[in-house]
Specification:
Structural class: alpha/beta
CATH architecture: 5-stranded Propeller
CATH topology: L-arginine/glycine Amidinotransferase, Chain A
Mean pLDDT: 96
Low-confidence stretches: none
Shape: globular
Number of strands: 15
Number of domains: 1
Distance between the termini: 11 Å
CATH class: Alpha Beta
Strand content: 25-35%
Radius of gyration: 17 Å
Largest sheet: 3 strands, mixed
């Protein structure tokens, strides 16, 4: 896989059977302060609806079995990254997530997914990585969930294959790059302009990528955190109706799935899915 917008053919999901709200980001901390808790029954129902929607749209689902000591395993985007050359195990910055990597890699290997190796130094999570288009990858660096050392270690996999790696600053409170930037198509992305690094915006402009603007207040509800299915189709959580309507007005087919059990933990549909295979754009 060398982009975020080709036709999605295969994706890695993990059951949320042991999901709980872990106070490891601003959104989850606020949820706990508000007295909210995760409901396992509802979370499984919402996750099943996501899996069924993907299957109905022609996407093969590869499943990772839940483990009680890994409450955030369902957010499969963060523990690995599919590249054109194989799956790379990442290195989560959150202590309670470090055990996810080997579990995910084992499940992927059992499904016949090629393994390229692991990031062995620093910290880097998949929510901070965007395969902008073939030959160009962006890696967000907050110094928290993704460090400079970890970002550069992941970037080296791409640089040795001749790719351009764009390192961009991410405010730690925003958790990951994909909370305020997601590719939609080859030349189009969702983004919160006021939260993105101006240098990164300049690079996107040089690449001819336009941005559909997301408001700052729409970030916390994961309104920017969408999954492109290719052919101008996306899945969103429906938590930012204005954004969904803006995309529909641009000719996108918008599928919404209620995922509030997950957004209160700080993750949306992009976070819950690790694409394994895409075809022509």
């Amino acid at each position: 896989m060398d982009n975020e917008y080709g036709v999605l053919k295969e994706v890695l999901l993990a059951s949320p059977q042991h999901l709980r709200i872990v106070p490891c980001n601003r959104v989850s901390e606020n949820a706990l302060r508000s007295g909210r808790t995760a409901c396992g029954v509802t979370a499984k129902s919402q996750h099943r609806a996501l899996a069924n929607k993907l299957a109905s749209l022609g996407v093969r689902v590869v499943s990772v079995q839940p483990l009680s000591h890994l409450p955030d395993l369902a957010f499969t985007r963060d523990s690995s990254l599919m590249t054109p050359w194989g799956l790379i195990g990442l290195r989560p910055g959150a202590e309670h997530r470090k055990g996810e990597v080997d579990v995910v890699l084992s499940a992927a290997k059992a499904a016949g997914v090629p393994n390229l190796g692991k990031v062995e130094v620093g910290c880097v999570e998949g929510g901070d990585v965007s395969l902008i288009r073939p030959g160009h990858v962006a890696i967000g660096v907050s110094g928290n969930r993704t460090t400079t050392l970890g970002a550069q270690a992941l970037g080296s996999f791409f640089e040795r294959e001749g790719w351009s790696v764009i390192y961009t600053r991410v405010e730690p409170d925003l958790l990951h790059l994909d909370t305020h930037f997601c590719m939609l198509d080859r030349d189009l992305a969702l983004g919160c302009i006021e939260k993105l690094d101006p240098t990164f915006l300049d690079r996107l402009d040089e690449l001819g990528i336009d941005i559909v603007p997301v408001r700052a207040e729409e970030i916390s509800s994961l309104g920017c955190n969408v999954l492109s299915l290719g052919r101008r189709r996306i899945i969103s959580t429906g938590s930012a109706p204005r954004v969904d309507q803006a995309l529909a007005d641009l000719g996108f087919e918008v599928h919404t799935i209620t995922l509030d059990q997950f957004t209160q933990c700080g993750g949306g549909v992009h976070c819950l899915t690790m694409p394994l295979r895409r075809s022509g754009c």
